[in-house]
Amino acid sequence: MSLTLQRDDLLPGRNLIGAWCDASDGRRFNVNDPATDAVFATVPDSGAADARAAVDAAHAAFATWRAVPAKQRALILKRWNDLILAHQEDLGRLISREQGKPLAEGRGEVAYAASYVEWFAEEATRANGEVIPAPVPGRRMFALKEPVGVVAAITPWNFPAAMIARKIAPALAAGCTVVCKPAEDTPLTSLALVKLAEEAGVPAGVLNIVTASRERTPEVVDVWLDDPRVRKITFTGSTPVGKHLARRAADTLKRLSLELGGNAPFIVFEDADLDAAVDGLMVAKFRNGGQTCVSPNRVFVQSRVHDAFVEKLAARIAALKVGPASDPVSQIGPMINARAVEKIERHVQDAVARGATKLVGGARLPALGPNYFAPTLLIGADGAMACACEETFGPLVAIARFETEADVIRAANDTPFGLAGYFYATDVRRIWRMAEALQTGLVGVNEGALAAEAAPFGGVKESGYGREGSVHGLDDYMHLKYVCQGQL
After folding, report:
1. How far apart are CA 98 and CA 39, in angstroms?
2. What's the predicted TM-score (pTM) here?
3. For residue 48, what are the contacts with CB-CB under 8 A and spacing of at least 6?
4. How large is the greatest C-alpha to C-alpha distance in the chain, in angstroms?
5. At 402, which helix (H) or strand (E)?
6. The Cα angle at residue 321 between residues 318 and 325, in degrees rounded to 5
7. Are 44 and 27 in contact (CB under 8 A)?
8. Phi, psi (5° rounding) for residue 133?
9. How far is CA 165 from the centre of its chain?
10. What is the pLDDT of residue 326?
11. Mean pLDDT by groups of 10 residues along the chain of 488 residues
């Protein structure tokens, strides 16, 4: 897909550290098209000096930005929302080119990203404190909400627009300033969004972004972890990296929002509407080629309906159209890189070696390009297989049978992760039992698409802590100050 934009200046190709600039040592790294592995852009390969300069700019801007009235901050965010929507086509093309998802999904992600900006623009004016009834005469007691300070945002590659918006919008709404490092695979969308935020009126120094290669990312992030002026880290990514950030952040007691790995169960009971369950699984599993943190990773189907469900699902998976974003009929694009393809292939091979049966797909598609993998359906899965223990992050469905509700609850919760869970059933009593029994931060009941800007998004156990979106998402960027006035 050729990258022809209506606005070429949405590809600044530079860092924003108070002003647009190159890395201090002039280094750059390549951005590859996952459909072909061809290099099509370069961006700064930033290091410790650039990371420190970004904190300097954000810290200097904080005192002024926090004093800007909430209504004025809200107006700036609303202008940013309007600009994002006005450039939906350009941003969608950027996402599709650097991340690989079909263009329709790229456009959809832009709208989804904008919804968070709009939501937090509105929430900015609702950060209300409390008046506390005083226990003695002559005293007034208040709880005030204040911005935490400089926020370091580290974002993933799978939703390069949505994750930037979901972290930066509440930070700015709360009165925080931001330093941000986007994923090395997808920096262009993030730079374009920050360019639009600057146009919307975000003052210099309030929002800073530095790009870095995989090799230099630790150098950048370590500066932010060590700097006491950075008061919060917000990160979406793997659990091992999240644990590392939590350990390092403890030295300066930074606030943390961690949205980490998942191992989502998808459960189909014998009383489910099977057609609806198939629809829900297709939406939940194959969006972005299965490269989502809430993608179902373990599918459990009750024995009495197992064969009927598998037959319906196999036909739908076999009909999926795989191809580049440039093809309007494509429903699944390439995986992000060779490492992703190798992991999916390893999971399929391990499952088959352990007794699973391959019904659909199960192999690379080299005729399309180096990073394509066929949508795959396996049956006969069990909890010992790698695809049940590790997050596949690809278009692989592995189905296990179950007999009783108690059995599937034990199996679904038998994981250190707890981000999302799904189940399909029509018995109202079962619905409430299951909603309470699943040890996850998100539960989809007869629904495969969970996320919304008004809902709290986040996990439990080793899937992290903190919430993004909703009123709770704004609170994660603020702290409470107790004020007591006496002698009244």
Report:
1. 10
2. 0.96
3. 219, 220, 222, 223
4. 80
5. strand 396-402
6. 155
7. yes
8. -60, 125
9. 10
10. 85
11. 81 97 98 94 98 98 98 98 98 96 96 98 96 96 97 97 97 98 97 98 98 97 98 97 97 97 97 98 97 97 98 98 92 96 98 97 96 98 96 97 98 98 98 98 97 96 96 96 96
**What sign for the dihedral angle of Cα 379, 384, 386, 387?**
positive
Provide φ and ψ at 318, rounded to 5°.
Answer: -65, -25
Identify the pLDDT of residue 2.
61
Measure the CA–CA gap between 338 and 329, rounded to whole angstroms: 24
| Distant-in-sequence, close-in-space partners of 216: CB < 8 Å, separation ≥ 6 | 27, 45, 46, 47
Q: What is the DSSP letter of 134?
A: P
Cα 419 to chain center, whole Å? 12
Burial of 279-318, coded b for 16+ CB within 10 Å and e otherwise, reads ebbbebbbbbbbbbbbbbbbbbbbeebbeebbebbbebbe
Can you read off the two tokens belonging to residue 437?
Answer: 């029994």
Q: 332 near 488, Cβ under 8 Å? A: no
Residue 430, amino acid: R
Phi-psi region at 461: left, alpha or beta (left = phi > 0; alpha = psi -120 to 50)? left
**In sequence order, what are the residues at sequence separation of 6 or more whose Cβ sits closer than 8 angstroms to the Cβ of residue 11?**
5, 41, 94, 188, 191, 192
Catalytic residues: 259
- Whole-angstrom CA distances from 46 to 59, 182, 191, 329 are 19, 12, 14, 38
Give me the residue label for tokens 């920050």. 194
By residue count, the chain amounts to 488
| Three-state secondary structure readout of 368-386 | CCCCCECCEEEECCCCCCH
